[in-house]
Specification:
transmembrane helix, 51 residues, transmembrane, membrane
Length: 51
């Protein structure tokens, strides 16, 4: 009764699913939320703030 192969294949599937979910979250953050951009002030005002 060998269960090593079944356990190994399920472990690989689990790790693959976690990896894909991580890639989806990273892609959403990079392409969906566009980090680094501001919505309230133009870039010139962010770089050279008026005192």
């Amino acid at each position: 009764m060998s269960t090593g192969g079944k356990a190994r294949s399920r472990m690989y599937a689990f790790v693959s699913i976690i990896f894909v979910i991580g890639l989806l979250l990273a892609g959403y953050y990079v392409f969906g939320k566009t980090p680094g951009e501001t919505e309230t002030a133009p870039a010139s005002e962010v770089v050279n703030p008026k005192s």
